[in-house]
Amino acid sequence: MAVVYITEQGSYLTKKGERLIITKQDKVIQQIHAFKLEQIVIIGNVMLSPATIAFLLKKGIDTVFMSIYGKYRGRLISGFGKNIELRRIQFKKMDEEDDKLSLAKHYVHGKLSNCRTLLRRHNLTYRDSNVTTALHKMHVLLRKINRVDTLMTLMGIEGQAAAIYFGIFGRLIKVRDITFDGRNRRPPLDPVNVLLSLGYTLLENVIQTQVNIVGLDPYLGCLHSVENGRPSLVLDLMEEFRPVLVDSLVLQLINKRIIRLTDFYRPEEQEPAAFDFAETESTRDDLPILLTHVGMKKFIIHFENRINQKVFYENTAMRLSYRDICLEQVRLLVRHLRGEAEYKPFIMR
Question: Domains in the chain and their CATH numbers?
């Protein structure tokens, strides 16, 4: 099933028969056949006709809205999964502390294991003693996970590991003009954090789509606290995939100079091609640094290439795309909740 990103600012999305048509200033930019179209991601100032909205809802085409800055806004969904019995099981399991802790341990174990693999792969080439030290510290934390008896303690371990990981992450960047001094967000303050935040938003969208498909409630998880409007389950399931699909991609794009410093700009530079007319000037000025329109398109293309890349998936003993692996992990969670299997995180080799 296809996913289409619409990034052309000031464009208009209409329908004609079974086709979606993107126009700008009365010129047709692209035509999309609705057949096998799973999702449309609309970024920035793109208008939809009422007939188009009705068509997307009728066809069940998940439609996601993001700002030009990479912030998730919302989505059109024709209906959540109708599996109320599954949600009852989910609510019951997430109300039992032992079950919550057991599942949360798997999420944290997957994340830490994959972060270590990313660091270890880097060190095969560069032999950095600082990275070696970080690997050892994270290994010690990994061994503590099984002995944890409270969710708060587990979150403390995850926090320590994140501090070690992002404390060393900058040493993996090998270009001189882009540096990383630590993770920051809301807003991201430098090019690396801009890319990480955008990548995590795109990954969150992928996981939420899969959660909606199987019929779980995206807002009830176990590792991330439950807050109004916060898709806690989606954030839980994302953890093991962050280093696999986003962190490694950001390093690749920067170190291979696919994305350069010239792909970013500051608000005072007023890059018109990327201006999102649905945002206010004050919002724009609150963001220290932004991706250009070209930079955004480059990142999206490479993110889609990565998530459609096929690798060996142990649970099925088959080569699957990362997108399909995300779905299989959500389905594994369903079987776990039903008591049919134990959840095991996806581990990068």
Answer: 2-76 (3.100.10.20), 84-257+308-337 (1.20.120.920)
